[in-house]
Design goal:
Length: 212
C-alpha cells in the first residue's frame, strides 16, 4: 500500500466500524494475492471503499472519469487506486487498465448493475462485467452489501449512522464459458457475456447477511 492508500484504508475502517457499526463476513473467500474480481451490488457512494477495506490487500476500484476533472480530487482518487471510466463504463483505456491490473495480479471491484440502485433493490446486471470476466482468468467473488442504501443512498445529502454489513461469497467458476468463448461466433459471444453477468448477479442475490 502507498501512504495515501494506507491512510484512506485506516480512515474508512474507523468510519465504518464506529459511525456505521459494520459487520464483515467471510473475508477468507478472497485470495490474499493474485488476480480477483470482486463483484458487488451497488447502492451508495460508500460501496467502493466498503468492498476493499476489510481486506488485507490493495484493491482497485472504478469511478466516472468526470470525477477526475478536479486536480486534487483526481490525484487522491488515483492514489487510492481508482480507475477512471466513461459513463457507459466502456472506455478502451479504462478497460485495458482493468485487464492489465488483473493480468498482473490485482484485485478489482466491479458493480454488475453499473450504477447505484434507485430503490434499494438489486438491479439486472449489465453485460460489461461478463466481458471483463470472460476475457480474464481471475476468480470472481460475489459480494453483497447490506444497509448502505439506508445509510447513504442517491437521494441523501449526508450519511445516516445506519448499521451496514458486507459478505464475501465463494469464488465462482467460469472455465466452461471462457473455453466456449474462444471458438463461438459473435452472437453467442454476446450471449455468453450476459450469461456470465446474470450468474454473478444471481450469486450476489443469494448471499445472506449472516455468516455461514
Amino acid at each position: 500500500m502507498n501512504l495515501s492508500y494506507r491512510l484512506g484504508w485506516h480512515f474508512f475502517r474507523f468510519l465504518f466500524a464506529t459511525y456505521f457499526r459494520w459487520r464483515v463476513y467471510n473475508t477468507e473467500n478472497v485470495p490474499l494475492e493474485g488476480p480477483a474480481i470482486l463483484a458487488s451490488n451497488h447502492a451508495s457512494f460508500l460501496d467502493p471503499p466498503l468492498v476493499g477495506v476489510p481486506l488485507r490487500r490493495t484493491v482497485y476500484s472504478l469511478a466516472r472519469a468526470s470525477l477526475f476533472r478536479f486536480w486534487l480530487f483526481g490525484a487522491i482518487l488515483r492514489s487510492w487506486l481508482v480507475i477512471p471510466l466513461d459513463r457507459e463504463g466502456g472506455s478502451p483505456a479504462g478497460m485495458k487498465r482493468i485487464w492489465d491490473e488483473l493480468k498482473h495480479g490485482g484485485a478489482i471491484v466491479i458493480f454488475p448493475e453499473g450504477t447505484r440502485t434507485r430503490d434499494g433493490r438489486l438491479q439486472p446486471a449489465h453485460s460489461g462485467i461478463g466481458l471483463t470476466v470472460i476475457k480474464s482468468t481471475a476468480p470472481v467473488i460475489p459480494v453483497r452489501l447490506f444497509g448502505t442504501y439506508e445509510a447513504f443512498n442517491r437521494k441523501a445529502w449526508f450519511p445516516k449512522p445506519h448499521r451496514i454489513a458486507i459478505k464475501y461469497g465463494k469464488p465462482l467458476n467460469f472455465d466452461a464459458l471462457r473455453a466456449e468463448a474462444k471458438t463461438c461466433d459473435k452472437a453467442r459471444l454476446r450471449a455468453i457475456y450476459q450469461e456470465a453477468a446474470d450468474q454473478i448477479m444471481a450469486a450476489i442475490g443469494k448471499l445472506e447477511p449472516k455468516a455461514d
